[in-house]
Specification:
Elements: H1 2-22, E1 36-45, E2 51-54, H2 60-74, E3 79-81, E4 90-94, E5 103-108, E6 111-116, H3 119-132, E7 140-148, E8 154-160, H4 168-180, E9 185-189, E10 191-192, E11 195-196, H5 205-208, E12 212-213, E13 235-236, H6 241-252, E14 257-264, H7 269-274, H8 307-323, E15 328-332, H9 339-343, H10 345-354, H11 359-376, E16 380-384, E17 397-400, H12 407-412, E18 418-420, H13 423-426, H14 448-453, H15 465-468, E19 469-476, H16 484-491, H17 494-503, H18 511-527, E20 540-546, E21 549-555, E22 562-566, E23 583-585, E24 589-597, E25 600-601, E26 606-610, E27 619-621, E28 646-648, E29 654-665, E30 668-676, E31 686-692, E32 699-705, H19 708-711, E33 716-724, E34 730-739, E35 757-764
Parallel strand pairs: 2-3, 2-4, 4-6, 8-9, 8-19, 9-14, 14-15, 15-16, 16-17, 17-18, 18-19
Antiparallel strand pairs: 1-7, 5-6, 5-7, 10-11, 12-13, 20-21, 21-23, 22-24, 24-25, 24-26, 27-29, 28-35, 29-34, 30-33, 30-35, 31-32, 31-34
Helix pairs in contact: 2-3, 4-6, 8-11
């Protein structure tokens, strides 16, 4: 019986393999797309006992790595041999005409042959082999020729391990998966207001105090309040120096350099909670490791007037420089709010001594002094683009994140090298797909296709800028993460898109080919147990009022799926109509839609529950660009940035008017209003509804005012604010005027911030 089973299995395997061979040359699924690639018919088949030979000692670790990867992936045992390399099945050889990361790869009947400029090139060649192997035939390497090299030398990922502490083993998994994509820099944001994550032997309180915060994981990051003194602090963790050595070794084995960031002078509450004497004496607040946005604690930064601050930071740099073999130390420099500096007698003295007249130049003094120290250790300095707000430290490499990264161009104009990580496209904290399906996070969307579409070199750049651009980085801020899986969900698969932008030549992009190749990488992630996002299969809707109807557009990023929909409340299936053009809706009801490929349903079902009332589809007259959403029949979700909310963010009173098209009796007006306390989204102070038959003469029909308590209520909820319209007159125009609620009060999570309000829908009955 057992023998029969084995026989059956062998037969099935042979059939599967034969069918692959028979299919001829595969389309290669190598990511990022190589510079040059030719596929040939057939395969070279890996078998147990085959040999791998590295011509030079420096390539031996790469050969070991590949043998291990193949064992894990294909179950095949490869033997590393030292001599007679020409006869080995897999041959790695150094070629002087290639740069260290470049390679030439030939797979033919004789096996796999790699020529490279250095170990990294060999490593990348073998990653190409790995990604060319298909999951249904794990021992078949397609015959091919590849000649490849990266577009940029800096191909990076930043992981913020301060907001969420990523355990060593979990970080290694990320490193492993990024190395498959030929990324070569991992920038670790090791310190911030929310936790200090690296053991510094000279300053043990940095980790005994600074690595730990109160447990408010039951609330999203922006909703968390600062603790009272003495509250237990069980949440956090840190890397010991031994841990970090292990991480560095593991990354080096995958051709990845770990770049440490010690952020200063801002984002330093964790350090200052441990050593509060290094804050300005003007600080009048309890300093703590903050669990969330800090209610203004972000203003507490290292005192620039205190010599102890510099002695302390130099002590930190001493150990960091010793521990990390990287050429670089990143000194942060971002978002250093100067409120306490302005009130600090020590900072004032420093400015006087140094002849500094502008407070921004005090930061320049700080950064330049620390940069000199870093450089004295033989390291190069990196920093965020805020460093361009004042005199730049000599030689500093600038990371452009604001304004599509263009702030870094100010540095380029002064001859500085730079790395692009524009928040709008490269911050992986942002939503990666239709928000109704995504876990809560900040800001707007930055989809897989957005990342893929990024071209860092601007058409209007001055000639020398491109030569100063070291490369690109995706930055993963972890405010909304509560597990390592939350981190990988945001990182993958967008990191694959970043990798292709950073590696493949300009003009090489092919979205269809990219997503097709991606499927094989996703298979690899699954086989490693990595959680990733499938948001690219979900549908983004856009519903706008148009001529008394609602035009519903449905979009999916994947070009290889069909959107199918129903209007009868049933779940869409493979026989449902295919969406080919916007749907024009003239009555209430449910639209359900999902994406399908040849095998079945791919994404999640999107349900649009369309309401209908006298205002639906009707024109809104207002200066607000998103006013067509107010009468589109679709309600917003609790996520304020889901493209269903129309926002007013101005201290001025605002108004809008709905034209119902014809005069009819109106008894009630309902406004959908969002409260998102943590983001400062609240009701306005007052709302007045006026009505008119001719659009000229309006009469006040109803109004409501709200107390401060009613306005600044905590929570995240939607209220339908109802207005009874009496008088029985025929109404064609409904005008809504709002009065501003002013600043968020002092005890608010956002004290002193201008409150904003958002409506999703005006309903008229
Ligand atoms: C940053 O996003 N503060 C660099
Ligand atoms: Zn000070």
């Amino acid at each position: 019986m057992r023998r029969l089973d084995r026989w059956k299995k062998t037969l099935l395997l042979a059939l599967a393999v034969a069918s692959c061979e028979w299919m001829g040359a595969q389309t290669a699924t190598i990511l990022p797309a190589p510079v040059e690639m030719t596929m040939q018919e057939g395969y070279f088949r890996l078998m147990d006992g085959m040999t791998i030979c590295a011509e030079k000692d420096e390539l031996h670790p790469v050969a070991d790595y590949f043998a291990e990867a193949m064992k894990e992936m294909s179950g095949v045992t490869l033997k590393q041999v030292d001599t007679d390399g020409k006869k080995a099945d897999i041959r790695l050889k150094v070629s002087k005409d290639l740069s260290p990361e470049a390679y030439r790869l030939t797979v033919d009947a004789d096996g796999v042959s790699v020529e490279t400029g250095g170990p990294a090139g060999a490593f990348y060649a073998l990653q190409s082999v790995r990604l060319a192997i298909q999951p249904q035939d794990k021992t078949g390497i397609p015959r091919m020729y590849v000649a490849d090299q990266p577009r940029f030398g800096y191909r990076g990922l930043m992981v913020d391990v301060s907001r969420y502490f990523v355990e060593k083993e979990e970080l290694m998994k990320i490193i492993d998966c990024m190395s498959v994509l030929k990324l070569n820099k991992l920038h670790l944001h090791l310190t911030d207001d929310n936790g200090w994550r690296l053991e510094i032997k000279k300053y043990p309180r940095l980790t005994s105090v600074g690595a730990w915060r109160v447990n408010q994981t039951d609330r999203p990051f922006p909703d968390r309040r600062n603790p009272e003194p003495g509250e237990p602090t069980p949440i956090g963790g840190y890397y010991t120096q031994e841990d970090m050595k292990e991480i560095i070794r593991y990354a080096a084995g995958r051709c990845i350099e770990i770049i440490p960031e010690i952020d200063m002078p801002g984002h330093s509450n964790a350090a200052l909670a441990a050593y509060p004497e290094l804050a300005c004496p003007s600080v009048d607040k309890h300093i703590c490791v903050v669990p969330g946005m800090g209610q203004g604690s972000g203003n507490i930064i290292f005192c620039a007037g205190n010599e102890e601050t510099f002695r302390f930071l130099e002590g930190v740099i001493d150990e960091v420089a010793e521990l990390f073999p990287s050429h670089y130390i990143h000194l942060g420099g971002d978002e250093a709010w100067k409120e306490y500096w302005k009130k600090c007698p020590r900072c004032a003295d420093r400015m006087k001594q140094e002849g500094i007249t502008h407070i921004e130049e005090l930061q320049s003094y700080f950064m330049r002094r620390m940069s000199k120290y870093v450089q004295s250790k033989g390291k190069q300095v990196m920093g965020w683009d805020e460093l361009t707000n004042s005199t730049l430290p000599d030689g500093a490499i600038i990371f452009g994140w604001q304004g599509m990264g263009n702030a870094a161009l100010k540095a380029a104009a002064q001859g500085h090298r730079f790395v692009m990580t524009p928040a709008r496209l490269m911050y992986l904290i942002r939503y990666q797909g239709p928000q109704w399906f995504e876990p809560l996070t900040y800001f707007g969307n930055n989809t897989l296709k957005d990342v893929y579409s990024y071209e860092p070199v601007g058409a209007d750049w001055k000639e020398n800028y491109e030569s100063l651009l070291m490369g690109l980085q995706a930055s993963m801020w972890t405010e909304f993460c509560n597990s390592a899986e939350d981190v990988t969900y945001q990182v993958f698969p967008r990191l694959a898109a970043l990798a292709e932008v950073a590696w493949s030549p300009k003009g090489h992009k092919d979205w269809y080919r990219f997503v097709k190749s991606l499927d094989n990488y996703l298979y690899l992630l699954r086989s490693k147990g990595i959680r990733y996002s499938e948001a690219m299969f979900n549908i983004q809707h856009k519903a706008v009022a148009e001529n008394g109807k609602v035009k519903v557009t449905l979009e999916c990023e994947r070009p290889d799926v069909a959107i199918r929909y129903t209007t009868d409340g049933m779940e869409p299936d493979i026989s449902s109509p295919v969406y080919t053009a916007p749907l024009i809706v003239d009555h209430g009801g449910e639209i359900r839609c999902a994406t399908f490929d040849g095998t079945g349903k791919m994404g999640k079902t999107l349900t649009l529950d369309m309401g209908w009332n006298l205002a639906t589809g009707k024109e809104v007259i207002s200066p607000n660009v998103s006013d067509k959403l107010l009468t589109n029949g679709v309600r917003g979700s609790l996520k304020q940035s889901d493209f269903e909310w129309t926002e007013w963010y101005t201290p001025e009173d605002a108004s809008f008017t709905v034209d119902l098209g014809k005069a009819s009796p109106v008894s009630r007006v309902v406004l959908g209003c969002l409260t998102h306390y943590a983001m400062g989204v609240h009701k306005p102070a007052g709302i007045t509804v006026e009505v008119s038959a001719d659009g000229q003469h309006f009469t006040k029909a109803a109004s409501r005012t709200f107390t401060k308590q009613e306005i600044f209520k905590e929570g995240n909820f939607i209220e339908d604010l109802s207005f009874q319209i009496t008088g029985g007159k025929a109404v064609r125009y409904v005008k809504v005027t709002t009065t501003d609620a002013g600043m968020c009060p002092e005890d608010h999570l956002k004290p002193g911030q201008q409150s904003r309000y958002r409506f999703d829908e005006i309903q008229v009955f």
